[in-house]
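Instructor's aside before we start: the two examples that follow are unrelated to each other. I chose them only because their records fit on one page, so don't look for a connection. First example below.
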Amino acid sequence: MTLVLGGARSGKSRYAEGLIEAQPGPWLYVATAQGWDDEMRERIAQHRARRPPPWVTADAPRDLPAVIRRAPPGRPVLVDCLTLWLTNVMLDEAADLPAATDALLESCRAAAGPLVLVSNEVGFGIVPENALARRFRDEAGRLHQRLAALADRVVLVVAGLPMILKGDHA
């Protein structure tokens, strides 16, 4: 399992796609984004256009653990991105965030093939002015710490350059 962290437009998604494409296909792209507005729908379309066959896309805005568990044995899986998943879970008033996070970690532990997780590192900025944004930043940091402890490799991507924080070079 590889955790790829980085800021917005850091190159983390392209880097993660390269890790998966180094494996035999077909590859499973697990998308957590939701097209709430025109701009987000355009971003989603651009990402999809960048991934022709043998990429297969599965949408998992909330039930990410189930999609990871259902991946065929040996199939390389790319999840992009965990901070969108976290946002979706946090905004779902019926969701139990600790249980959802535990389920995600368990599905990662049990993954039956190569797994690459992409997430935004949001802890480098200023302290947000509102409680929800501060809670999101804190929850993302806790999630990243737990996943980094579990991961074989952790990579921080800055300006398109990967910095290996844990594990070997890909």
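Example two begins here.
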Amino acid sequence: MATMPTRISQDLFESARTVGEARSRSAAQQLDYWARIGRELEASPGITVGEIERILSGQAAYDDLTSGEQAVARVAWQQQIRERAAALDLTEELAAAGRPWPEADADGNVVIRRADAAA
């Protein structure tokens, strides 16, 4: 993904940093997240921000949303999944616990890795 420098207000950056830390995102990742949600909201003027926030926080049911609101919620969830998956690295944790784990090799074959061979 290409990035482009842009100027934003200091208070928006600070807000993104604060909220991002609570959600395990950098300030840039939080701003990107907000921009994606905003883009979807503007493309669908019948969607309310409050309703989407209630769904994302688990306070309301996804099935109660309109199809447009569901689309916005799915975009937000996809972004959260991508961020969490990118941050996952269980090798160190499993090795420290002395537990073996399966991985796919370069040919797609399943191999069992062991803590003593991970170093």
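DSSP finds six helices and two strands in the chain.
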